[in-house]
From TrEMBL:
Protein name (database record): Polysulfide reductase
Naturally occurring in which organism (per UniProt): Wenyingzhuangia fucanilytica
Domain of life assignment: Bacteria
PANTHER family: POLYSULPHIDE REDUCTASE NRFD, PTHR43044
Topology versus the membrane: Multi-pass membrane protein
GO cellular component, one term: plasma membrane
The entry's keywords: Cell membrane, Membrane, Transmembrane, Transmembrane helix
Amino acid sequence: MKILKVFKNLTLDSLNLITTGSVKYHLWMGFLSIVMLVGMYCYSIQLEHGLGATGMNDRVSWGLYISNFTFLVGVAAAAVMLVMPTYVLKDIDFKRAVLIGEGLAVSALLMCLAFVIADMGGPGVLWHMIPGIGVFNFPNSMLTWDVIVLNGYLFINITIPLYILFRHYQNKESNPKVYVPGAFLSVFWAVGIHLVTAFLYQGLQARPFWNNALLGPRFLASAFAAGPALIILVLAVIRSHTKFNIADKTIKKIALIVTVAAQINLIMLVSELFKEFYAPTHHSESAFYLFFGLEGKNALLPWIWTSIPLNVLATIMLLFTKLRNNFKVLYFCCFILFIAIWIEKGFGLIIPGFIPGPYGAIVEYSPTGVEIGVTLGIWAMGIFIFTILSKVAINIELGELRYRPKK
């Protein structure tokens, strides 16, 4: 009963905390709320008119929603780059940043699930995903494996930080025997969520653009570049707007992870380009469409030719220690690398897989205003949740939010 009483107090104290703050904080949360309301309005249009309100069609059946889903799986998996040094390798430098990384993972996973719901058309069909009730098709369908690993990883990333923060809220130390096994499991699970998502595409033989052995490793490399890059940007904001001190050497260590992963991602990209264009076959048409256009159709050219230079520029700049240790330059590199991988792993991966179709038809895709509105609303929801989680976690870690039993 005492645990329930403490948890009730934690909930009430957290609610009080997240509803108070500076003018900037309230303006920020108000802005996110407005964007979410716009997203909800756009989603209501989709519910009324069906997926016909989007730019998707019978030729291109995955669009902006699944592009963001695929990218955010990588962002969620990137939390392991902080979990492993902290809990497994006992690197004290990462300790203050790891809870922020796990909060980011939780927010990213919730956005992933929201994008899946949006792409299914509406919540009314979600019963199909319930084992024993719907048509779950386990273990044959890779999609069912994806549902399991994503929800499992979400559970791990909620329970470990919750336990640690719950103990700290009571001014007690957390017991490593309780959370370290889960941390070890999360390391393997993080790799699993991204590999299973890659296998979901890789196993579709009729889509040669995805059907290659390098897709899984490239997913991991891009995730461990874009995810920690976002974590650095988030830590930069936290350092400048809160009293939560993140040491410079912590940022520099995460930057080194980004640098190595960005190089590996770029090498794999060059390898794929060589395979597609050195000895092209009719299976290379999707790549030709993406990079050069096909039969006068070139909707993705501005996207991919924005992504590649940004990717190369960020990777080259990060190679130089002097530039990487200059935080203004580092933040710029992380920002453009994040944008570059979002484009490459979103539109640059999902859409060309459908173009041209199995019968050679070229039907281009562009997201509608409804899709863009829903997407922005989901991103705003994720940022809103992360803001709340980080505000509570930071105040507990600073000792400003503590359990005070009534006498």
